[in-house]
């Protein structure tokens, strides 16, 4: 056991460290996670539609008649979300490189994104086709956002910028120094966009999507979700933030799925994807990684003082999805009792949750919903289906069942230790008293 | 004493932040304590005396240290679990030197 732990620790820690230091991956993660609030706003427009479906009848018909009004904000949020991700990805990477004006690079990336994704009809310059600025443009924004920064860095490295005399105010000289890389990026983007439409007869985002299609769709499967959850939990066993580490790989996919679902719902079509950001946090990480709520309640009620004191610290945060006190306090880390339920339990839960949606028992996510809420709330807001809330709470209860026997074994062990410590104290006190009497 | 506490989302560290503030007040010392996410840590460069890192992202120690450009150390797991304001405050003081 110890040997396996040491070996895993030796492998996992450097991997986590490498991932964290990989600037591009981290910038993409930060960039796409930053647009979640924008997708949430877009998804909130689906609430009337969801309620209409839930209640049906006259209310449902009324919602349907006014669907264009309810959907209005989606045109400016989810439908153009890749503009925002382009900004955040480039800004984040520029910050990681300690470049002078990260927000300038963010704007540069937005402009490049517009050039690459907006299709202008040459016959009628008033018609802008912006459909690719939504979920389709997300992967383009990743490529564009990163390239804009890298290209600008090359210009800065070789000093290919306009330099002003020292007497020029820094604000003015900075805006000029970025002019050459800015112009180069825009011209390059124009060239790519025109080449695609002229020679390939399609747009750049469409080419990217068809190239990445197999990779993109393969992430939305029960296997991918189960593996991701397994890795998340395993990392936590070593005290490493599993969600934060694995996210740098899966977040761009999950957020694309959420945006595609939101776009489908807004268009009046059924959503297709299950594995969204909210699915991961609202169903598979409710009350914290490992879904420990019932475990915390067991701890609070325990006769073992060491367990109940930590349980009491952790109970309120647990309701809001924060369980670090439990993971570090129980601790879950390197704890042979917790290894099986904490790592394998959530894998079973993910298979159940995924299949519940795949079979149509529970509605699919409509987009994204706010997290860090008590169990069931995010699941409901995400799907506008009461059965989703039931599923989330069921998951927490099922995890409680998994924890129970292991917790009891651990508690017995803990009580034995506490008793031994007490007996030792008592012995020491008695010996002291005896010594005092003898002295007297 | 100005202490920055960094964790993944700035959520769990906010529990410790409250306890550090309470402890500092109880011994009559002035402390400004704030929690931020590791993604936002770069914006805090040089604005604080010391930076404490949550143990679950200890793999990011070098990265965060590089971003915040001030004395940075990881909080002990037990201290973090129990939100032990006293221990964390003393660690921050020792770190400041």
From TrEMBL, chain B:
<dbReference type="InterPro" id="IPR003501">
    <property type="entry name" value="PTS_EIIB_2/3"/>
</dbReference>
<feature type="domain" description="PTS EIIB type-3">
    <location>
        <begin position="1"/>
        <end position="97"/>
    </location>
</feature>
<keyword id="KW-0597">Phosphoprotein</keyword>
<keyword id="KW-0808">Transferase</keyword>
<keyword id="KW-0762">Sugar transport</keyword>
<dbReference type="GO" id="GO:0016301">
    <property type="term" value="F:kinase activity"/>
</dbReference>
<dbReference type="InterPro" id="IPR036095">
    <property type="entry name" value="PTS_EIIB-like_sf"/>
</dbReference>
<dbReference type="GO" id="GO:0008982">
    <property type="term" value="F:protein-N(PI)-phosphohistidine-sugar phosphotransferase activity"/>
</dbReference>
<dbReference type="Pfam" id="PF02302">
    <property type="entry name" value="PTS_IIB"/>
</dbReference>
<dbReference type="GO" id="GO:0009401">
    <property type="term" value="P:phosphoenolpyruvate-dependent sugar phosphotransferase system"/>
</dbReference>
<feature type="modified residue" description="Phosphocysteine; by EIIA">
    <location>
        <position position="7"/>
    </location>
</feature>
<dbReference type="InterPro" id="IPR051819">
    <property type="entry name" value="PTS_sugar-specific_EIIB"/>
</dbReference>
<keyword id="KW-0813">Transport</keyword>
<dbReference type="InterPro" id="IPR013012">
    <property type="entry name" value="PTS_EIIB_3"/>
</dbReference>
<keyword id="KW-0418">Kinase</keyword>
<keyword id="KW-0598">Phosphotransferase system</keyword>
<protein>
    <submittedName>
        <fullName>PTS sugar transporter subunit IIB</fullName>
    </submittedName>
</protein>
């Amino acid at each position: 056991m110890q040997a396996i732990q040491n070996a895993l620790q030796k492998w996992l820690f450097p991997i986590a460290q490498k991932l964290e230091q990989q600037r591009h991956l981290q910038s993409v993660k930060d960039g796409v996670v930053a647009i979640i609030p924008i997708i949430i706003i877009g998804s909130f427009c689906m609430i009337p539609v969801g309620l209409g479906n839930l209640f049906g009848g006259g209310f449902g018909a009324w919602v349907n008649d006014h669907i264009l009004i309810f959907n209005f904000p989606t045109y400016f949020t989810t439908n153009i979300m890749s503009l925002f991700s382009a900004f955040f990805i480039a800004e984040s990477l520029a910050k990681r490189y300690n470049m002078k004006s990260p927000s300038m690079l963010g704007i540069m990336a937005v402009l490049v994104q517009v050039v690459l994704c907006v299709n202008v009809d040459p016959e009628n310059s008033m018609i802008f086709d912006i459909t690719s600025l939504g979920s389709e443009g997300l992967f383009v924004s990743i490529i564009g956002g990163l390239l804009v920064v890298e290209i600008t860095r090359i210009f800065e490295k070789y000093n290919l910028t306009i330099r002003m005399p020292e007497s020029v105010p820094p604000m003015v000289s900075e805006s000029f120094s970025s002019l050459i890389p800015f112009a180069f990026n825009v011209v390059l983007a124009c060239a790519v966009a025109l080449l695609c439409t002229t020679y390939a007869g399609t747009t750049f985002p469409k080419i990217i999507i068809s190239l990445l299609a197999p990779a993109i769709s393969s992430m939305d499967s029960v296997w991918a979700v189960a593996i991701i959850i397994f890795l998340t939990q395993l990392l936590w066993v070593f005290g490493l933030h599993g969600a934060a580490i694995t996210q740098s790989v899966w977040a761009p996919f999950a957020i694309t799925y959420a945006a595609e679902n939101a776009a489908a719902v807004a268009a009046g079509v059924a959503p297709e994807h299950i594995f969204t950001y909210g699915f991961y946090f609202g169903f598979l990480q409710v009350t914290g990684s490992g879904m420990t709520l019932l475990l915390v309640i067991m701890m609070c009620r325990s006769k073992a003082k060491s367990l109940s004191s930590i349980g009491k610290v952790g109970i309120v945060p647990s309701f809001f999805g924060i369980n670090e006190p439990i993971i570090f306090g129980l601790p879950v880390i390197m704890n042979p009792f917790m290894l099986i339920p904490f790592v394998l339990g959530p894998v079973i839960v993910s298979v159940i949750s995924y299949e519940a949606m795949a079979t149509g028992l529970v509605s699919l996510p409509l987009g994204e919903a706010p997290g860090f809420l008590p169990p069931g709330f995010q699941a409901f807001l995400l799907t506008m289906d009461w059965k989703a809330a039931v599923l989330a709470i069921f998951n927490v209860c099922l995890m409680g069942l998994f924890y129970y026997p292991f917790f009891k074994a651990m508690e017995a062990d803990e009580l034995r230790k506490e008793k031994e410590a007490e007996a030792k104290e008592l012995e020491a006190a008695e010996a002291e008293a005896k010594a005092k009497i003898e002295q007297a | 004493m100005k202490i920055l506490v960094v964790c993944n989302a700035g959520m769990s560290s906010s529990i410790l932040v409250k306890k550090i503030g309470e402890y500092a007040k109880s011994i009559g010392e002035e402390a400004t304590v704030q929690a931020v996410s590791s993604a936002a840590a770069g914006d805090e460069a040089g604005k604080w005396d010391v930076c404490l890192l949550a143990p679950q992202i200890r793999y990011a120690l070098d990265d965060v240290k590089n971003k915040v450009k001030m004395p940075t150390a990881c909080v002990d797991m037990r201290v973090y679990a129990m939100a032990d304001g006293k221990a964390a405050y003393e660690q921050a003081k020792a770190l400041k030197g």
